[in-house]
Fold this sequence. Notes:
Elements: E1 6-19, E2 23-30, E3 34-40, E4 58-65, E5 71-81, H1 83-87, H2 89-105, H3 113-127, H4 132-146, E6 169-172, E7 177-179, E8 191-193, H5 195-206, H6 209-213, H7 219-237, H8 243-253
Parallel strand pairs: 3-5
Antiparallel strand pairs: 1-2, 1-4, 2-3, 4-5, 6-7, 6-8
Helix pairs in contact: 2-3, 2-4, 2-8, 3-4, 4-7, 5-7
Amino acid sequence: MPTPRVYRTNAIVLSRFDLGEADRVLTILTPDQGKLKAVAKGVRRPGSRIGGSVEPFAELELLLVRGRTFDVITQAAVEHAWLALRDHLESAATAWYLAELAERAVEERASAQPVYALLRRACQLLDDGMTPARVARWYEMDLADALGVRPEVERCVECDRPLEADERFRWVPALGGVLCEQHPGPPAEVVGMSLAALKLLRAYRRLDIEAIAGLRLPPTVEAEVEVLLRRFMRHALERDPRSLTFLDEVRARH
């Protein structure tokens, strides 16, 4: 059966760039089509019918026509507008970071329903006012799970022995998680970690985000886990997202 030339889909904008004098190319994430690039023709002209709709930080319903280079957006409507997210700079910067992680993690034209649902929920949580850093850590852990590389935090990645509270732990992204004290690991990859950080990583693995939001945690432990999960995502996606620089600048101002 031939692929329909015209199709409708929900979508979240991941990134965009201007094309020519009036057009804009969007990288969008869809549940069934995965990641794809689509052009919004004339969207930068005053009075464009879809100009106000195809913006980041919203779930869109799009009608598209398949094209040779880019699919073309012919209709756009906003399904969910996360307006509160846009009013808080750290939440907006975090949303850009999460969108970039999704863009790097998903293949073009491949089903991406778990990642789509994860990004949609993360944006809603940010819009609801949840602490951006906790949303980011929860998202990183669940994105790793969706990609099949969720870090091991219960057992040693080398010998499969359950980790004990009275030993020293090392974080080794290249091996997939935590290494017990009986194994040295590759020196360049090993990062020491505290028992409190291990417990928090386990919480991110076991608990839903609403339960995590209610935890009372020392800032030092949250900062340690942030470093550990960022290292893990850098290894999984092969480089740091560009949006981290902006996010860290925003957080440094507060």
